Amino acid sequence: MSAAVQERKQGDGLMEDAGTYVAAADLGPEEMIEAGREVIRTEARALGLLGEAIGSSFADAVERLAGTSGRVVVSGMGKSGHIGCKIAATLASTGTPAMFVHPGEASHGDLGMITRGDAVLALSNSGETSELRDLTLYTRRFDIPLIAMVGRAKSTLAETADAVLLVPEVGEACPMGLAPTTSTTCMLALGDALAVALLRRRGFTPHDFALFHPGGKLGSQLMRVEELMHKGDDLPLIASGSLLSDAVLEMTGKRLGCVGVVDGDGLLTGIITDGDIRRQMSADLLSRRVEEVMTKDPRRIGPRALAAEAVNEMNLRGPRPITVLFVVEDGRPIGALHLHDCLRAGIA
C-alpha cells in the first residue's frame, strides 16, 4: 500500500471491503435525513408486503403453538437470535410460555432443555444457518413441532419445518444489501403478530396480563379496585334513618371523608361527604336524619374493575369530580376506594 493511500485511510475514515478501500461519503444534514427516511420507507414497504402475505400458513403456525402443552422454544443465530429473544419475551408476557435457546449452546447440551411437549420456532433469513442443524434434527427425531421463520421458501429449514412463516424477499435497507435490517424488522413484526394472535386464541385478559406485569407503571395501571379498596372494619357505613350526628362519628372514625348509607337490606342508597355537611351547616344539622343530607344513588364501581377505570369514574363522570367511590357487589357495599389510594399506587 502506498504512503498516499495510507495517509488517506487514516485521515478520511476509509472502510475496507474485500481488500478495496473506499472513502467515507461526506454527507450533509439533508442527505443524512433522506438516508434515514429511505430506510424507514424500505422497511415500511416490506411490512406492507408481509401483512398481505399472512395467510393459511400463519394460522397453521398459531394452531400448532396454541396446541403445545409445554413451551415455545425460540432459536436463531446472530441478529435473528436477538430478535428471537424479544419474541420469546413477548410470547411469555402474553400467556404463551416461551424461552430462548441459543443454537450454538443447544449443540453442547442445551438440547436437554427441549422436551417432547414443546414446540420450536427457528429464525433464519437464509434458511441455511448451519448452527441450527442439530436443533432441527433434534425436533425431527423426537417429533417436536418446528415452525420456521425464514426469508427463502426453498431453503433447508423451510423444507424441513412443519409450518413456515415467510419473510418477503425485498432486500435489506442497508445500501450494501448485507446488514440485517429489513429482514429483522419483518421477523420482529411476525413475532408480534404470532404473540397477539395466540393471546386472542387463548382468551388472554387484562387481568392475566397484570399477573405477568406486576412491576413499574404498567403493573400499577393494571391493578384492580379490590387490591386497593378499604374494607371490613375500615368501611364507613351508617343505616338509613340514623341521625347525622352518628354519621359524623362514623365518618370521623374511618377517615375517608365520607360515609355510605345503607337500607334494611344492606343496599347502598346514598353517601354523605365532608362537603355535604359543610354546604348544609345549620344549628339543627346534627339532629337531622341522614336521608335529608345524603346524595342519593351515588357513583359506584365493581371490585374487579381496573383501578384506572375508578380514577376515570371519579374525575370524568357526573357533574363534578369526586374523591371516593364505594365498591359494590349486587348493590351491597363491600369496600371504598379513595383517589389518594390510587395516586399512592402510581395510578393517575
Q: Into how many domains do the coordinates divide? A: 2
Distance between the termini: 66 Å
Task: Specify Rg, calculated over alpha carbons.
Answer: 31 Å
> Fraction of residues in helices?
40-55%
Helix and strand string, N-terminal first? HEEHHEHEHEHEHEHHHHEHEEHEEHEEH
The CATH superfamily of the largest domain is: Glucose-6-phosphate isomerase like protein, domain 1
Strand content: 15-25%
Instruction: Give average pLDDT, whole number.
Output: 86
The name of the CATH topology of the largest domain is Rossmann fold
- Number of DSSP-assigned strands: 14
Spans with pLDDT under 50 lasting ≥5 residues?
1-23
Describe the structure.
This protein has helices at 3-12, 29-53, 56-66, 79-93, 103-106, 133-141, 156-160, 182-202, 206-212, 216-221, 225-228, 244-254, 274-279, 307-316, 339-344, and strands at 15-17, 20-22, 72-76, 98-100, 119-124, 146-150, 163-166, 237-239, 258-262, 268-273, 295-296, 300-301, 324-329, 332-338. With 348 residues, it is an alpha/beta fold. The protein has a 5-stranded parallel sheet, with helices on both faces. A 4-stranded mixed sheet has the order 8-9-10-11. α4 (79-93) runs parallel beside α8 (182-202). The longest helix is centred in the first third of the chain and has 25 residues, at 29-53. 30% of the residues are buried.
